[in-house]
Amino acid sequence: MTLSPEQTRLREVILTGCVALVLFALGLAGFLLTGGEDDLPARSGPVLPRLAGDPGAVYTIEITTKEDRFVLQEDGEGWVLLGRGGYPADAGLAARLISRLAALEYAGPRTADPQRHALLGLQAPEEGGDATSIVLRDFESQVVGEVLAGARRGERGTYLRLPGEDQAWAADGVLPAIATPQDWMNLDFLALGTDSIARAYVVPVDGPPYFLERPGLSQRNFALRAPAGWQLITPGAGNGTGTVLGRLRFRDVRAAQFEERPIARYEAETFTGLRLEIAVHDTGGARWAVIRAIALTDDAMEDALALNNHADQLAFRLSDLTEERMIRPLSEIAEPVTRSEDAP
């Protein structure tokens, strides 16, 4: 179709306007990221030069987010979490974090306007922002490196700021997930295997204690052995409680120091003779498990020692689902036996 001269001129005007709009948008995006400065600051090389020169000097790692603050320390044998009973931290993760922080290099400036820091995930955590503050110190508590880490920049970059500076930077290099204590801890160490559990004894917060037992390895369901006068509402009603230690993941860890007595208890025993005794404590609505392992047979001795070494003098926070399964009242899985009036 042949366009008239008027239509041709109109199309040229529209195309010119679209190109101008795209250029304006690109310019605006650049203005937002750089803060609109004509003379941009320049830096090159390592973001944390002292760390890059001596990564082995790191003795403590302080991590602060808007939700939490925690400190890791190298104790000569590995890394531990201070304030959480000295629980072992992931040494491999500590090595990766230090290595990647040491390798961070400046790629270019971004905004220097504090009002735009949030766009890059660089608003400080003490201001309720999403940045992660990382401070590395040596044995004498001198700072080896300190940075505010923000959002990822593509697949291989990170946005960051140095404390006390408004200028944001793009850096080459990415950091591992390190912002929560759970990233650093092995909290799924308790996994007896559902098929290995033979019996469970429960003292719930409310209602009578009860005892569940699986007659043999070939049996799928737990039977209710006590108290008398009760029956399970379905053949498998006790399986969730009986196998709760088959595999679970705790939510946190702390020193096992409680002023109050336990509110509930749970015991499980495997066919190989490993018994676990768990005292459940309540602190501010959170439920914490103190674990003790006992070897009833020689075959269970090694597992009992390993569990006790891991859990000694520590308490582990239960998830809501684990708590619900572990210490559920008898009335939720069983009902009183109704006897016929005509029964002898």
Q: What are its keywords?
A:
20% helix; nine-stranded antiparallel β-sheet; alpha+beta; single chain; 344 residues; elongated
Describe the structure.
- It is a single chain.
- With about 350 residues, this protein is α+β, with helices and mostly antiparallel strands.
- It folds into two domains: about 50-185, no CATH class; about 195-335, no CATH class.
- Helices cover about 20% and strands about 30% of the residues.
- It contains six helices and 19 strands.
- The chain has helices at about 5-35, 50-55, 90-105, 240, 300-310, 320-325, and strands at about 60-65, 70-75, 80, 85-90, 105-110, 130-135, 145-155, 155-160, 170, 195-205, 210-215, 225, 230, 255, 265-270, 275-285, 285-295, 315, 335.
- The strands form three sheets. It has a nine-stranded antiparallel beta sheet. Strands 12-11-10-15-16-17-18-14 form an eight-stranded antiparallel beta sheet.
- A hairpin with a 5-residue loop joins β6 (about 130-135) and β7 (about 145-155).
- The longest helix is centred in the N-terminal third of the chain and has 30 residues, at about 5-35.
- The protein starts with a helix and ends in an 8-residue tail after the last strand.
- Residues about 20-30 have low confidence and may be disordered.
DSSP strand content: 25-35%
Number of domains: 2
Low-confidence stretches: 19-32
Oligomer status: single chain
- Figure out the total of helices: 6
Q: Would you tell me the overall average pLDDT?
A: 89
Q: Describe the largest sheet.
A: 9 strands, antiparallel
